[in-house]
Amino acid sequence: MTTETEEPTLTVDELAARAGVTVRTVRFYSSRGLLPPPVIGPRRVGHYGPEHLARLALIEELQHQGMTLAAIERHLQQLPADLSARELALHRAVVASWAPDAARTMTHEELERHAGRPLGEEDLERLGAMNVVVRREGAFRVDPGLLRLGVQLLDVPLALESILAARDVLIEHSRAAARELSQLFRDAVAERDATAVKSLSAHMHPLVVQALLTTFQRSLKQELREWLTDARPAPES
After folding, report:
1. Below-70 pLDDT ranges, the chain
2. pTM of the prediction?
3. Domain boundaries, the chain
4. Contacts for 39 with CB less than 8 Å, ≥ 6 apart
């Protein structure tokens, strides 16, 4: 299994199998620029990493939301070029949250296949505490948009309480931003007809998601930069 700190190790066949698509689909997306080129290893074999897998998952979610391939191309081109697999998973989770009901029922085997790794009892408890999975009579109700992000959080060296507290902070501020944006959009179309409202709603989704991700990424990098600067020992006189 690859992580963000490892070299890309998936062949195109392994990438396609993990993503649940065909090799032909992977090559087609690559030809359209939706996927970055693989790392070419010995014997001219291309190797793919977690960013490729996360991009395929994001493309799948955007298609689920009803976006055309051309719209998906424009959407991906507007995203920051240096997004990590975890940031892409976060972006997918935000996109999936717009769906009326994104949850699916899976067996334990299906859940592990979508997660790309075995999931023990402790893993399932942590995913359940994060509201990524819910146990239901021998099966699991799963939010696919959050699953990949939740699985990555299993390996983050933070206590579950800290992860849940961070989730509450994100939910609180996201809802506050959503309320203010909704009021702004309502005021903007208050004097217009229903067609204008529908048109604005169709354009608002990808733009708001992109703006939220880009703004949050830049703000978080700035905060981390300041934190590391403050934590650095002062030079001796």
Report:
1. 1-8, 94, 96-102, 145, 182, 185-214, 217, 220, 224, 231-237
2. 0.49
3. 103-156
4. 7, 8, 46, 47, 48, 49
